[in-house]
Write a structure and sequence with these properties.
ATP-binding; about 450 residues; 3 domains; Heat Shock Protein 90; Single alpha-helices involved in coiled-coils or other helix-helix interfaces; alpha+beta; rod-shaped
Length: about 450
């Protein structure tokens, strides 16, 4: 059962008293340089404002020499140079300056540039204080001192009577509130909005900075997890490729063993007849070596993983692609094979398996993520490549290709992880082929994979 949280707990949470997060500038040297320039700018503006105040007549009754007025104004603005490096110290110095100068040369503190300085100092202390408990104590003490001073000025001292007489309201009451009380309440309201507005604005800035950092950390975590998932998907796909190629290579080794035994027996009785088994051994060994090289290239740099003890049934190939159209799920799949008679049977097992898996994954994506009702699968096997074609260097001995097309649009809310397409590209890279995966300009989606065929043996 959740515990009831009192208003003091909620208030402490909002001010971040027990927060373990510390706000620091993203680029401290740059931030401190900017603060230095900001502080110097306030010094210049405060000195200029003091001179303009003298010209207006603010200091007619002030016996202090002009240089002292300039010095006091500059001293009030200079601490902003360290506003983010030592925010609580800056607040303390600035507000002590406010109290001391306000009691001795009060006209300096009412200059507009210094009023902005006092606001910025309070705002910076709340927004950048690292120790939140110390911040609450220092800011609370500063606000208490300010309002105590205001109370003394307007309620106890002669300030209210002077303002009322100056405004010509001593003998009349234009509104429903007594003029002296109205002046007091008005000044308290203005200062309340001024001081507490600065504190609340600083705390809101602190919360915004903490949210930004949390979002950045979450985004980094998501990116790292996504990269890990992709790596795991690649590992899983490569292990599956390794198992498939292992089965094919094992077949070749078995054939070599059988033919070697036959050749050994024939050598004693009919040496001429042993040529056929030896020729078969030569071809099978070459193909096995080529496939093993492909396997090692795919798995290079990866740690060995144990098998999963899966099914040992024969792996599918090109001849099994038409069976992918038999799923009774409402998708009309048309399969067409474009090849010379017997050409598809000459496609090596690993290539046929990769093309089968490509078609299988592409149709699964259509069923899961597309609005298509029809799809077409075209299998092409070409042994003769046009010598003027740019593909002749990549496919000198021909190619085997599968192309899956659909006419649908992406289904809303069904975006996948991309792992299936990543697996397709891994297979293509294994065999040194090319892939064309993406939306069609006329609508729908295309997945086309073309793999090079090995040299045809007689």
């Amino acid at each position: 059962m959740p515990q009831h949280r009192g208003w003091t707990t909620r208030l402490a949470d909002w001010w971040g008293i027990d927060a373990d997060w510390v706000r620091v500038p993203a680029d401290p040297p740059r931030a401190f340089r900017n603060d230095a320039w900001l502080g110097l700018a306030f010094v210049v503006v405060s000195v200029v404002g003091t001179e303009l105040g003298r010209s207006i007549g603010y200091f007619e009754d002030e016996p202090a020499p002009p240089w002292l007025l300039y010095l006091l104004a500059a001293a009030g603005a200079a601490p902003l140079v360290w506003r983010r490096r030592y925010p609580l110290v800056v607040l303390s110095v600035v507000y002590v300056h406010f109290l001391v100068v306000g009691l001795t040369v009060p006209m300096v503190t009412i200059l507009a540039p210094l009023q902005v300085v006092y606001f910025v100092a309070l705002f910076s202390a709340v927004a950048w204080a690292r120790d939140r408990q110390a911040m609450v104590l220092v800011v609370g003490a500063a606000l208490f001192a300010m309002f105590a001073w205001l109370t003394w000025q307007f309620a106890v001292g002669a300030g209210v009577e002077g303002i009322v007489e100056q405004m010509g309201l001593a003998d009349e009451q234009p509104g429903s509130v007594n003029p002296a009380l109205a002046v007091t309440l008005y000044n308290l309201l203005v200062n309340f909005a001024y001081f507490y507005g600065a504190a609340v604005a600083g705390q809101l800035m602190w919360h915004a900075a903490r949210r930004r950092e949390r979002l950045a950390v979450q985004a980094e975590t998501i990116e790292r997890q996504t990269a890990e998932l992709q790596r795991q998907a690649v590992v899983t796909e490569r292990l599956r490729i390794a198992r498939e190629l292992h089965d094919v290579v094992a077949h070749h080794v078995s054939v070599i063993g059988i033919q070697a035994a036959a050749a050994r027996r024939l050598l004693a009785r009919d040496p001429g007849a042993a040529a056929a088994p030896l020729e078969t051994i030569e071809g099978e060994s070459r193909e096995a070596v080529a496939q093993m090289r492909s396997l090692l290239g795919t798995l290079r740099g990866m740690d060995d993983e144990p098998g999963d003890g899966g099914s040992r049934a024969p792996e599918p190939g090109l001849a099994d692609i038409p069976g992918l159209a038999d799923a009774a799920d409402g998708l009309d799949v048309q399969v067409r094979v474009v090849a010379d008679p017997g050409a598809a049977d000459g496609v090596p097992g690993p290539l046929g398996l990769s093309l089968y898996r490509t078609a299988q994954e592409a149709l699964a994506n259509v069923r899961r993520h597309s609005t298509a009702r029809r799809a077409s699968v075209v299998v092409r096997v070409e042994r003769e490549v046009d010598r003027g074609s740019p593909d002749v260097e990549r496919f000198p001995h021909g190619y085997a290709e599968v192309e899956v097309l659909d006419d649908g649009r992406p289904r809303s809310g069904s975006s996948g992880t991309g792992m299936g397409l990543l697996g397709i590209r891994e297979r293509v890279a294994t065999h040194g082929g090319v892939a064309d995966v993406g939306p069609r300009t006329t609508g729908g989606y295309r997945v086309r994979v073309r793999l090079p065929l090995p040299e045809e043996r007689p």
